[in-house]
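Cross-check.
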Amino acid sequence: MKLVVGILGSPRKGGNADLLLEKALEGARSVGAATEKITLNDLDFKPCQECGVCEKTGICTIPDDMRLVYEAVARADAIAVASPVFFGTVSAQLKMMIDRFQCLWIDKYVLKNKDSRRKERRGIFLCVSYADRPDFFENSQKIVRNLFATLDLMYAGDLFCAGLHGKGAVLKDKKALGEAFDLGVNLVKT
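Predicted model, tokenized:
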């Protein structure tokens, strides 16, 4: 059974990013996958401290809840990441998590540890914005593409929903909900 890990970068439970992520995970479950959801805002973790330890080992040694994320990502067969756009990029919670994967970037590109890589995994990105400006998604997409490259995830699709005015506004957009569901299905069916 495949495991799809959903990572919610939004601080708002039940918000638009959360609702799309839930729909994608529902799609994955509909074709037999197990799912696990991580809400970054519920975790107690620090940003990267640039301490230099990972430059020698490829492993982050900060003793906090980020270890739960590392473990889940290592177990995952596929990953779905969801975030709102804040000031033209992903949320602080998601960016902080991404920065903590610097250890894996070091492991892969500096230490050239090929043993830790997993091939044929896929990732999707779900992103929402209050603003009705599609160009607001460009920075967020670039950051998530870099994360997926570091994690050896094929960028398997995305869904950008602009102009969502208010918590739960995406529930009125049946097309977006259907697309999120389909993205979840496609994460499992390869």
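The longest strand covers residues 153-161. The chain has a mean pLDDT of 94. Passed to J.P. for a second look.
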